Amino acid sequence: MKANVYDEPRGAEVPRQRELQEPTTRKAAGPRKTGSTGWLLPVGLLLLSAIPLASGAFRLVGLAGGPELLPANARFAASPLPVVLHIVSVTIFAILGAFQFSTGFRRRRPGWHRAAGRLVVACGLMVGLSGLWLTLFYSHPDGSQPLLYALRILFCSAMVVSIVLGFVAILRRDLNRHRAWMTRGYAIGLGAGTQVLTLSVGDVILGPPTELSRALLMGAAWVINLAVAEWVIRKRAAPPARTTSKRPLYRGGASFSGEYV
């Protein structure tokens, strides 16, 4: 006579059920990643902007009547207000904006994120608009490259447009578009930090830069920043890989595997 699966002792079913369920439970309750690595991005962004921010602080000291820590610039001394607004706004924008990219900090302090975000938007607009003012209305040194003039107008305008679109997106509660446009705007605003690197590398490889090579190296910094920003945006928007887990189903004490997606 064939053995009946329903005759299996009930007590033996419980350990068997636990044994089959145990791998799935362990996988779901795996160790969570800590938020310690969430600070790496803000710190990296602050380091990237450190040299331009320090140069801006030195320029403010000179304009305030202190010691000239940087070579004097007659254009800035003749009309210091746009330069001061540009330096102050870019400093706030770079520092506060860096912490907006910390996911853990954003989740723990949503109120701070919103308040700081409003200030970041205001300062970002000031950075772009003052950059346009300095480009359009300040006199240019003899022999300055028209290409650099055009690049500054292009990227300052793109920064203003990106921040406006990011602000409009958050008013519409479109978080994905808000993050994408603010990431682009911040990447353009940090162009001066990357320009320190591109100009240094160009000086080592090509020697002292000409006006044309300097314009190209500075333009390359903006392009690099935007390329990295687009990579981050697309990576963040990519849907997570779907995994198929097998869970045991039980019918009258007999077991079989069924797939759930």
Give structural notes.
The protein has 261 residues and is mainly α. It has one domain. The protein has helices at residues 10-28, 40-48, 50-63, 74-78, 80-99, 103-108, 110-137, 146-171, 175-189, 191-206, 211-237, and strands at 245-251, 254-260. It has a two-stranded antiparallel ribbon with strand order 1-2. Mean pLDDT is 81; it is low at 5-12, 22-36 and 243-261.
Highlighted features:
261 residues, mainly alpha, globular
Give me the count of strands: 2
Oligomer category: single chain
Poorly predicted ranges: 5-12, 22-36, 243-261
Secondary-structure element order, N to C: HHHHHHHHHHHEE
Largest sheet: 2 strands, antiparallel
- Main sheet: which strands, in order across? 1-2
Q: How confident is the prediction overall: mean pLDDT?
A: 81
Instruction: Please indicate the percent range of residues in DSSP E strands (runs of 2 or more).
Output: 5-15%
Helix content: over 70%
Which descriptor suits the 3D outline?
globular
Gap from first CA to last CA: 40 Å
Q: Counting H and I runs of at least 4 residues, what is the number of helices? A: 11
The number of domains is 1
Would you tell me the structural class of the helices and strands?
mainly alpha
Gyration radius, to the nearest Å? 28 Å
List the helices and strands and how they pair.
Blueprint: H1 10-28, H2 40-48, H3 50-63, H4 74-78, H5 80-99, H6 103-108, H7 110-137, H8 146-171, H9 175-189, H10 191-206, H11 211-237, E1 245-251, E2 254-260
Antiparallel strand pairs: 1-2
Helix pairs in contact: 2-5, 3-5, 5-7, 7-8, 8-9, 8-11, 9-11, 10-11
